[in-house]
Design brief:
By secondary structure, the protein is of the alpha+beta class. 24% of the residues lie in helices and 25% in strands. The protein has a five-stranded antiparallel beta sheet. Helix 1 packs across helix 7 and helix 2 packs antiparallel against helix 3. About 2% of the residues have low confidence.
């Protein structure tokens, strides 16, 4: 009898036994006879080569150590998603590349070291770093009243050697909410729609402030045909063959004319909301089994 396959689900010190949303995936794999370990990405004692597949799930403390995280990813023999995708996707300047490829995104201005940013005359704006997770270091500002704090936020990021991204606050966040389109491989290996959720507003107050992991209001949602079409366009624009991806989360929001716009493409460590959609953990487990 062949030895059972071994899968590592990658987490961080904050969730050493996995974030709760990943427990259904662990259980589905165990039910299929796969040996599953939860390991921190920065565990110096981990033997990553001993696993048939290493699946990145919740390494959410990597932001301050992104270079080390990317180097770790490149050292793992069998990693999902692949290391080059992780390197590309963990810096949100990829949004500029997708926009150049014709993907409709929220209008975004980038300001990095050596740049000077002047706040717009009016409106509500969101400031955040291009390297972040879980809305860390993100703030929402009403201009011109909060032009000073907004400028200070951007200047603080630049002074730390980081790149800031500035976007208009989309009013639809407070009404329609975001739509997250979750995709996993089908039997042919091509990414296909698995399930959708509605994400409620998180930046409920202006002036910045921290957001706790798991504080989002998540409910099931069936994406519209326009949202599914845009999700496919986004995935087609990912560098390399999208068949290499084990999962993808495409976050969308209605623009001023109602057409969907891309907020973010999550290919590294997204919450997949497996507890929200019955059968979703089993679909992802089946995709992992196919890889094995």
């Amino acid at each position: 009898m062949a030895d059972p396959s071994r899968v590592a689900l990658v987490t961080c010190a904050t969730f050493p036994d996995l974030y709760a949303d990943d427990l259904p995936l662990r259980d589905a794999l165990l039910a299929s006879g796969v040996l599953v370990d939860a390991l921190r990405w920065d565990d110096d004692g981990a033997d990553w080569a001993a696993y048939d597949l290493v699946v990145v799930r919740s390494p959410w403390d990597y932001v301050a150590r992104r270079d080390a995280f990317v180097a770790w990813a490149r050292s793992v023999p069998r990693l999902a998603n692949p290391a080059d995708v992780i390197a590309w996707n963990t810096d949100k300047r990829y949004l500029g590349e997708l926009a150049e490829a014709g993907v409709p995104i929220i209008p975004t201005t980038f300001a990095g070291p050596g740049d000077t940013w002047t706040p717009p005359a009016e409106g509500e704006w969101v400031v955040k770093p291009t390297i972040s997770a879980g809305s860390q270091d993100t703030g929402r500002y009403v201009l011109p009243e909060q032009a000073g704090p907004a400028r200070a936020h951007v200047d603080r990021l630049i002074a730390a050697g980081r790149t800031a991204m500035i976007q208009p606050y989309m009013a639809a966040v407070d009404t329609a909410g975001e739509t997250a389109v979750l995709c996993v491989p089908d039997v042919t290996g091509a990414l296909t729609f698995s399930h959708g959720v509605r994400k409620g507003a998180m930046l409920t107050e202006t002036g910045g402030g921290a957001i706790e992991v798991g504080s989002e209001v998540i409910t099931p949602r069936e994406p519209s045909s326009a949202e599914l079409a845009l999700a496919r366009r986004v995935l087609e624009a990912v560098p390399g063959d999208a068949k290499r991806l084990l999962y993808a989360r495409v976050d969308l929001i209605p623009g001023p004319d109602g057409s969907p716009l891309l907020i973010e493409l999550e290919l590294t460590e997204p919450s997949l909301f497996l507890r929200t959609a019955p059968g979703s953990a089993e679909r992802l487990a089946a995709a992992i089994l196919a890889r094995l």
